[in-house]
Amino acid sequence: PANADLVIVGAGLFGLTVAQQAAEHAGVRVLIIDVRDHIGGNAYSYFDKETGIEIHKYGAHLFHTSNRRVWEYVNRFTEFTDYVHRVYATHDGEVYPLPINLGTINQFFRAHYTPAEARALVERQAGEHAHGIARNLDEQGKKLIGQPLYEAFIKNYTAKQWQTDPAELPASIIRRLPVRFNYDNRYFKDTWEGLPKNGYTAWFERMIADPRIEVKLGVDFFDESQPLNRRTLAEAGVPVVYTGPIDRYFDYELGELKWRTVDFKERRYDEDDHFGCPVMNYSDADVPYTRAIEFKNFNPERAESYAPGKTVVWEEYSRFARRGDEPYYPINTDEDKSIYDQYRTKAQLEPNTVFGGRLGTYQYYDMHQVIDTALTAYVEEVAPLLNRW
Ligand code: FAD
Ligand code: NA
């Protein structure tokens, strides 16, 4: 059915990276199919017609890495801006810098603590809760940073993320809560960060510019009414890289893996700048969304190209995903882990098929991690399946 030596299910970063490597190193013809109407998977973005603003359709995506192999690889396809990620939070009528740092602490306590004084204060407040094992997230949070900071910046935000009272969430969700005892509020600690200069989609198009790579959109691997489906490809003996949900591949026969999803509510304001920053978290319970993204502030270097007096903001509402929702964050309970292990064992026995990406391995990956795993999977698992001539 396919005039291809390799079929890739999913045009996300895992699939695009494997396709690019297969064309470049093995010289084979690669066909990528995706059920969506665009490439890029969850990292896809588009330019809004009315305002010229780049909108990340599946939530804000910031590229950052300390992995030299990945940084050199991605720079073959796009330049990056010098964007540095910073986040602010609204709490009790004031705006604070995040992650919690000396600026947050001094504003919150109306103080001028030195780094050592702030450290002693937080240690003392945490110490009041240090006794015994934290039985839930609420106790864990107080134990890590003390009650005042935990309740101001972590408690209600986490409750909104999980739609669950933190006293009913497992302590294991937060193993540590980093507090910085200086004024550094640069969000990522990685060596390199930035945003693709001409947008995410221009980057991804460069990855598949090779004429041996073809993409077919709107094609579902499991839809037997179209020719490029699971059965016909297996019969033709074409190697497949599958980056869709692993439980779906096996018809959920061992159970469903659980995810959280996010609903986005778009707001348009007749203002040049609504927040003065790209990300505003809402730490309190009275605002129902966790955070809001003002996309134009990710790309201040494009100021000239924006429609004046307009901005676009997306509010994020977090909830548990049902089948048919976009799966975003794996929940990873012990039950999920055990189900996934059984699917993975089955996947390893599946002939001529490589499972990869965040859905194929039930893992949260950042973009740089998924590219790294794809570069490795190409060498270790995909190349051995390709006939070279
Ligand atoms: P995906 O991008 O999900 O691609 C899988 C593709 O497979 C999809 O396009 C899907 O349509 C297709 N597919 C599935 N089933 C089928 C089928 N049956 N037939 C055909 N096609 C199918 N990473 C960062 O580095 N920085 C960030 O700031 C960041 N923010 C994020 C915010 C959110 C809300 C989320 C959810 C993720 C974020 N990420 C971020 C992670 C990033 O999105 C992933 O690392 C990356 O998208 C994973 O690529 P992938 O190829 O594994 O999966
Ligand atoms: Na191409």
UniProtKB/TrEMBL annotation:
<keyword id="KW-0413">Isomerase</keyword>
<dbReference type="InterPro" id="IPR015899">
    <property type="entry name" value="UDP-GalPyranose_mutase_C"/>
</dbReference>
<keyword id="KW-0285">Flavoprotein</keyword>
<dbReference type="GO" id="GO:0005829">
    <property type="term" value="C:cytosol"/>
</dbReference>
<dbReference type="GO" id="GO:0008767">
    <property type="term" value="F:UDP-galactopyranose mutase activity"/>
</dbReference>
<dbReference type="GO" id="GO:0050660">
    <property type="term" value="F:flavin adenine dinucleotide binding"/>
</dbReference>
<comment type="similarity">
    <text>Belongs to the UDP-galactopyranose/dTDP-fucopyranose mutase family.</text>
</comment>
<dbReference type="Pfam" id="PF13450">
    <property type="entry name" value="NAD_binding_8"/>
</dbReference>
<dbReference type="InterPro" id="IPR004379">
    <property type="entry name" value="UDP-GALP_mutase"/>
</dbReference>
<dbReference type="Pfam" id="PF03275">
    <property type="entry name" value="GLF"/>
</dbReference>
<keyword id="KW-0274">FAD</keyword>
<feature type="domain" description="UDP-galactopyranose mutase C-terminal">
    <location>
        <begin position="152"/>
        <end position="364"/>
    </location>
</feature>
<protein>
    <submittedName>
        <fullName>UDP-galactopyranose mutase</fullName>
    </submittedName>
</protein>
